[in-house]
Design brief:
Mean pLDDT: 83
Keywords: Cell membrane, Membrane, Transmembrane, Transmembrane helix, Transport
Distance between the termini: 8 Å
Oligomer: single chain
Strand content: under 5%
Helix content: over 70%
Number of strands: 0
CATH superfamily of the domain at 101-258: MetI-like
GO cellular component, one term: plasma membrane
Number of helices: 13
InterPro entries: BPD_transp_1_N (IPR045621), MetI-like (IPR000515), MetI-like_sf (IPR035906)
Subcellular location: Cell membrane
CATH topology of the domain at 101-258: MetI-like fold
Low-confidence stretches: none
Largest sheet: none
Shape: globular
Family: Belongs to the binding-protein-dependent transport system permease family.
């Protein structure tokens, strides 16, 4: 187990190098320059100012040299200075905003697991019944409804019409966490419910389930001991990419609820072509995704003892 985990962790290094190279090439191949303002009515920088900024950020060097310098710097966890916030380092922005996005994503993921998996189990046990149709309808809404539309709906419902939540916006108290968590969790709830239902329906058709029922086990024992354990593999598979996606920032939810997370900084960096910020966020997402996939592979052996890591 330890050797397997160590090998997988070492594989993250070449993976991140490949991600950084692809991102670097795409960024510089995109038309436009980070030295020229793109906001409406922005005053264009004179050529002398652009040359000075290019020398300051190293953009006057050949692309291959810029990339090698960047690799050398990130080895020391130096992601450079933000082009948009020219007095702030990228690592300081990430250090301040990433824990907030991770906190929001973890709460949304917990809600998705606690609600989505039981919904899928309930739908599978009552296949083609009224409960199945209700659960499937809820799951379909979760998958198809964008989180920013849901966020606006939650604000109107719980702040204006039924004022359970006294205010919206910010991240200063637990009451501020409720609506962003609900808005961000509905999509993962629907996805987990659908995966769980499909997987459990397939397992319930297997021969060993009929054998367990023939031995006199109750429906609850069959579901808990046999169906659920074998049916959790597909839902667990998507937990890693799903948590990596919502744990590294949700731009729309964070913008609507004024959550000081990393998502809105990433969107702003794309608009302003803030190369250091774009590279840092994408590398962080790649590393987070690789670690989460490793944890998922380890969970396989915990859920199903027949799976061995080798």
């Amino acid at each position: 187990m330890a050797q397997y985990i160590a090998r997988r962790l070492l594989m993250i290094i070449p993976t991140l190098i490949a991600i950084s190279l692809i991102t670097f090439v795409i960024m510089h191949a995109t038309p436009g320059s980070p030295l020229q303002p793109t906001a409406p009515n922005a005053n264009p920088l004179p050529p002398a100012a652009q040359q000075a900024l290019a020398r300051r950020f190293g953009l006057d060097k050949p692309l291959w040299q810029q990339y090698l310098v960047y690799l050398k710097n990130i080895w020391n966890l130096d992601f450079g200075i933000s082009y948009q916030y020219r007095t702030r380092e990228v690592k300081d922005i990430i250090y301040r905003t990433f824990p907030i996005s991770l906190h929001l994503g973890a709460m949304a993921m917990a809600v998705a697991i606690l609600v989505g998996i039981p919904l899928g189990v309930l739908a599978a046990v009552n296949q083609n019944g009224p409960i199945d149709y209700v659960c499937s309808l809820f799951a379909t809404l979760g998958v198809s409804l964008p989180n920013f539309i849901l966020a606006l709906f939650l604000i109107v419902l719980f702040v204006r019409l039924v004022p359970i939540i006294p205010r919206t916006g910010g991240w200063s108290s637990p009451i501020d966490w409720v609506l962003p968590t609900l808005a961000l969790s509905l999509g993962p709830v629907g996805i987990l419910a659908r995966y769980t239902r499909a997987s459990m329906v397939e397992v319930m058709r297997q021969d060993f389930i009929r054998t367990a029922q023939a031995k006199g086990l109750s429906d609850v024992q069959v579901v808990l001991r046999h169906v659920l354990k074998n049916g959790l593999i597909p839902p667990i598979t998507i937990l890693g990419p799903m948590f990596a996606a919502i744990g590294t920032g949700s731009p729309f939810v964070e913008k609507i609820f004024r959550v000081p997370g990393m998502g809105r900084f990433f969107v702003d960096s794309l608009i302003t072509r803030d190369y250091p910020m774009i590279m840092a966020v994408i590398l962080l997402y790649g590393a987070f995704l690789a670690v989460m996939n490793l944890l998922v592979d380890v969970l396989y052996g915990v859920v199903d003892p027949r799976i061995r890591l080798s």
